[in-house]
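Students often ask why inverse folding is considered easier than folding. One informal answer: many sequences map to the same fold, so there is more than one right answer. In these notes we will look at a single instance of the problem. The structure comes first.
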């Protein structure tokens, strides 16, 4: 009895053999067949041919090939009964349909159209990827295949060395139906097998096998955290059209009410857009200014995130994005984003080889504690126009710009200016690169409610103000190139002289040039302020050098420089920026690359009096694509006046990495630590070692499955977004739930 049962159970296993067959699929054509065939005619070739005139049976032997309207068959032997139209093929059988799918079997019974029939011990290898195996399969005239006691997998069934292996996952079913025209597989009475673990029963369902998309459930996610409890995410995709889709994602929690997420996206001939919305109802903290915030009654909470871009013509485009949250802690509470500001913007642009035009507006929503929303800017509109011309052997760029900034409970500013910048670049006979620059600008400002701005240097004078700006500059580079250590080195001394008269900077407000800091990227800039509202009005000379070395498999670049202010008049640059004294601090950057394995960038600023490190920033990447470490460290030690909140000192360390310890297995992690203390920032709440968050996880990923588990811990409380642990389990399968 036991032996009989074992034999019975072994039949489906043999019938569901997903391994490759030792048969080459039939070629698209056969050299033995040269004449074109009629639509209803079967072409064939064989090593030998026998014909029984009494029974009207044709027997083809040895390397038999049959062709008809894109359907192809190869076999060792084919018996064709011309009276009944029945074709029986045996021995190394392979049948290919017009879509490129290949079916293998021990024996096959077809009609003489080659479009329908029955196959024993069938294996189907799909052109789009994936394969099916069955005890018996039936092929219908329209190409539909029905497989009984079957199995399906999109996974590889061989190792990289060509040895057979069990697929990472597969589905066995009582019946599988494959419809080539729909590129879809339908399952009935199915079971899911993962790494050979016990089977999980499945309801009747279908899934795509091609590159297209169809309506259906997507891969679920599971997450556990302290605030919301266990979270179960089950997205469902609605295919509205080939270029449109909607994803509805219920988020079900054990501790709070469910949340609904909806994402709609559409692609057109001129562009695309995507809108994502979240909505739920829960308690939230409205009072974030106290240590123990009070909680409101249950209220609606949500978030909208949209983006769009359309290319109206080769030169004209329109784009925009919207990010709006119902309250300051919603995004963190539900682990959607950790941004502290959200910006909504829209822009109309025209770009051609020599002209740029943009009409832009934006709105900012703050998510920071103790940051009044009424002080956030609403810019509508900003108009920017630029034109580039050839003039006197150089390039002239003209610019016109207007900007209107409104605040509901703060300072309002309107600005307009026109400017022109002419650059002439020449190479001398000695190899020096000389660039001459002339710059001029005329500004007009109007300011209201300036007393609502707390930092005096940012206010400007109330009412209408005008300002004129001018500057002349000469920049000389002299590169020297030679051999060194078997490679090539280049030393480039550089000197720049800038002359600019005194400018009425403090008469106008400062909206866009607050975060000024000397660094290697702006050392030789004409204006070392970041925006338009402030212009460096001191004549100065800037000097430095760049040295680079290129060796086989390695490059090293380093630059260092300093500037000296020629005038003695007071500067508007605050102490601590590295630019407030006549001699600036020393600033530099070093970049090292060793093949694709090591990348190191070090930026620094040294105090001119005693070489104290005022800025120390290191970013390192070591490793390959599969195993790597990323580390970063930043310390700003500038002793800037605390009222200038845009430039406060900070110290931070961050690390991330991934280690692949087996072919498909890897561990990963990351951490961010705030090292700032009160001696660096008097307003900081950090004690000098304050972890922000960390993450640690393990992941398995092969050609058709990604399975991972992640542990994350947040250390900061913000309203109802609490610190604590969270755990995330992810599972993604090729062709299933995508």
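Output (designed amino acids):
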């Amino acid at each position: 009895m036991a032996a009989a049962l074992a034999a019975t159970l072994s039949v489906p296993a043999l019938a569901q053999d997903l391994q490759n067959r030792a048969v080459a699929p039939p070629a698209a054509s056969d050299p033995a067949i040269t004449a074109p065939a009629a639509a209803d005619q079967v072409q064939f070739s064989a090593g030998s041919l026998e014909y029984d005139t009494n029974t009207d049976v044709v027997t083809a032997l040895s390397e038999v090939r049959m062709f008809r309207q894109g359907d192809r068959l190869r076999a060792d032997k084919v018996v064709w009964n011309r009276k009944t139209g029945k074709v029986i093929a045996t021995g190394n059988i392979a049948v290919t349909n017009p879509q490129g799918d290949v079916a293998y079997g021990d024996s096959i019974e077809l009609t003489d159209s080659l479009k329908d029939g029955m196959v024993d011990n069938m294996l189907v290898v799909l052109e789009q990827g994936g394969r099916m195996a069955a005890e018996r399969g039936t092929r219908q005239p329209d190409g539909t295949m029905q497989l009984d006691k079957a199995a399906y997998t999109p996974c590889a069934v061989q190792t990289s060395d060509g040895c057979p292996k069990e697929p990472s996952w597969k589905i066995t079913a009582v019946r599988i139906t494959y419809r080539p025209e729909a590129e879809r597989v339908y399952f009935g009475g199915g079971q899911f097998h993962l790494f050979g673990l016990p089977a999980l029963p499945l309801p009747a369902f279908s899934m795509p096998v091609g590159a297209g998309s169809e309506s259906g459930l997507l891969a679920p996610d599971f997450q556990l955290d302290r605030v919301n409890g266990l979270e179960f995410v089950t997205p469902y995709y609605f295919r509205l059209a080939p270029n449109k889709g909607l994803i509805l994602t219920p988020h079900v929690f054990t501790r709070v009410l469910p949340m609904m997420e909806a994402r709609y996206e559409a692609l057109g001939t001129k562009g695309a857009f995507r809108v994502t919305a979240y909505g739920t109802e829960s308690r939230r903290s409205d009072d974030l200014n106290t240590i123990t915030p009070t909680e409101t009654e249950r209220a609606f909470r949500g978030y909208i995130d949209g983006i769009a871009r359309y290319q109206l013509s080769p030169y004209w485009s329109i784009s925009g994005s919207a990010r709006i949250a119902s309250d300051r802690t919603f995004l963190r509470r539900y682990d959607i984003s950790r941004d502290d500001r959200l910006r909504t913007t829209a822009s109309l642009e025209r770009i051609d080889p020599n002209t740029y035009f943009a009409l832009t507006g934006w709105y900012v929503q703050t998510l920071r504690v103790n940051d009044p929303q009424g002080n956030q800017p609403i810019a509508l509109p900003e108009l920017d126009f630029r034109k580039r011309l050839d003039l006197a052997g150089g390039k002239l760029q003209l610019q016109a710009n207007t900007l209107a900034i409104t605040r509901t409970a703060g300072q309002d500013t309107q600005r307009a200016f026109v400017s022109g910048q002419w650059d002439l670049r020449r190479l001398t006979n000695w190899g020096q690169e000389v660039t001459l620059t002339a710059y001029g600008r005329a500004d007009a400002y109007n300011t209201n409610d300036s007393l609502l701005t707390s930092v005096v240097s940012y206010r400007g004078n109330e009412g209408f103000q005008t300002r004129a700006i001018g500057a002349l500059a000469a920049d000389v580079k002299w590169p020297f190139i030679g051999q060194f250590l078997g490679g090539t080195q280049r030393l480039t001394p550089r000197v720049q002289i800038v002359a600019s008269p005194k400018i009425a900077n403090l008469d106008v407000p400062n909206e866009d040039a607050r975060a000024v800091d000397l660094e290697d990227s702006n050392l030789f800039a004409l204006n070392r302020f970041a925006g338009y509202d402030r212009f460096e009005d001191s004549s100065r000379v800037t000097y430095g050098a760049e040295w680079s070395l290129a060796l086989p498999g390695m490059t090293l670049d380093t630059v260092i420089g300093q500037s000296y202010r020629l005038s003695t008049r007071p500067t508007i640059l605050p102490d601590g920026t590295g630019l407030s004294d006549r001699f600036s601090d020393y600033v530099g950057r070093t970049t090292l690359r060793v093949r694709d394995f090591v990348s190191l960038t070090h930026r620094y600023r040294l105090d001119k009096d005693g070489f104290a490190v005022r800025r120390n920033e290191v970013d390192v990447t070591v490793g390959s694509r599969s195993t790597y470490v990323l580390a970063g460290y930043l310390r700003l030690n500038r002793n800037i006046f605390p009222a200038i909140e845009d430039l406060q000192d900070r110290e931070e360390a961050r690390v991330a990495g991934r280690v692949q310890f087996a072919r498909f297995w890897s561990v990963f992690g990351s951490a961010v630590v705030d090292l700032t203390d009160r001696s660096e920032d008097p307003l900081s709440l950090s004690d000098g070692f304050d972890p922000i968050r960390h993450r640690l996880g393990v992941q398995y990923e092969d050609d058709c499955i990604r399975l991972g588990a992640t542990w994350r811990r947040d250390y900061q409380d913000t309203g109802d977004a609490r610190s604590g642990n969270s755990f995330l389990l992810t599972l993604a399968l090729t062709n299933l739930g995508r």
